[in-house]
Structures are given as C-alpha cells and as structure tokens.
Design brief:
The protein is of the alpha+beta class. The protein is built from 4 helices and 8 strands; from the N terminus they run E-H-H-E-E-E-E-E-E-E-H-H. It has helices spanning 18-25, 33-51, 142-157, 173-179; strands spanning 4-9, 58-63, 70-72, 79-87, 93-95, 102-103, 110-112, 130-135. Strands 1-2-8-4-5 form a 5-stranded antiparallel sheet, with no helix packed on it. It is elongated and about 65 Å long.
Length: 187
Amino acid sequence: MFLNLETLTPAAGEPLSLARAKSHLRVTFTDDDTDIGEYIETARLAAENWLRRPIRSAVYRATFAEFIVAFVISGLGPLLVNAIDYLDASAVRQTVPAADYFSGHDYRGQVICPREEGWPTNTLAEPLPRITFTVGFATVPAPIVHAIKLYTSFLYNNRDAAVLSSQRFEDNQAWQNLLQPYQIMSL
C-alpha cells in the first residue's frame, strides 16, 4: 500500500460539453444551463461508477515506503506509468529506466520489476520510491460520451418526475452496450 497519493494534474472538463448536451436536448435558451451542467456531471459520475474506472485523464504520484516485488495501485483502473524514482544512498532522486519495469494494463494497476536483479539496491534505508502515472482516457471514446449524453437526456427529461421509475437507468441496455467494452470487470 502506498504512503501518499497526490494529484499532479487533476482531471479537467467534462467529456460532454454543455453546448453538445443542449444541442442533443434541443435546448436553445440559457435558463437551464446550470441544471444541464449538473446532469452532465451526474451522468459522468454514474458512467465512471458503472465502468469502475475514471474517464477523464489525470496524473498522480504514489509514494511507497520501500521497493516491493509488485506495486499495486488499485481502484483507478489501468494506468500508464510515466516515471518511477527513488532516493539513492546519497539521498538524491534517481529515475528507474523504463526498461527495468513492467506496467500491467489490467484493472489492478500493477507495476512489476521483471529484472532478475530486482529493483535498485543503492538506496537509503527508506528509498521512498514514487510512481508517477496517468489514469483515464486522453480522448474519451465516442461510445462513452454518447452514454453520458443518453443519461444526461434522461435526467433532463425526467427532472420534474416524482418517481422516475422502478428500473434504474443504469439497467438500460443501450447504456450498457455503449459502456461494456470499457468496463473493468471485478473478480
């Protein structure tokens, strides 16, 4: 488990713009802009929850106490490792060459050292290795954006209903078909 997780570059903007949502909803006035913006955010959060992964790209850095066989950064879906660094014996930050580790592209977010000699050994007693990584999509796939658009439309068109339905929107087959290829399956 990591000691600290810091956000270096937070996720920015929604994958569905207010203008695209309003066009889809055929709304030409500005009175409902705040509500529509909230529906877009709610739809994105629902999609992230259903997918079990973040949609928007963000950069994080996790700090660990020591080198271990496999670092696991769970709960964020597949990750792209940007860099691994550590404190050497002189307390100077050194970067581990990318060829010296493997980043799993599955839901577990594993970073493994496949080298026979293992991780660097010329370190302080507590080398505090840090893994800088990116999660989310650089460009959100169109099917995910469309699923968010469908959910936003559902929320907008049912905003005054006392009881929306006995069935959850997330059970909607079109929603599931659009999102399913990107979902992280749990074991």
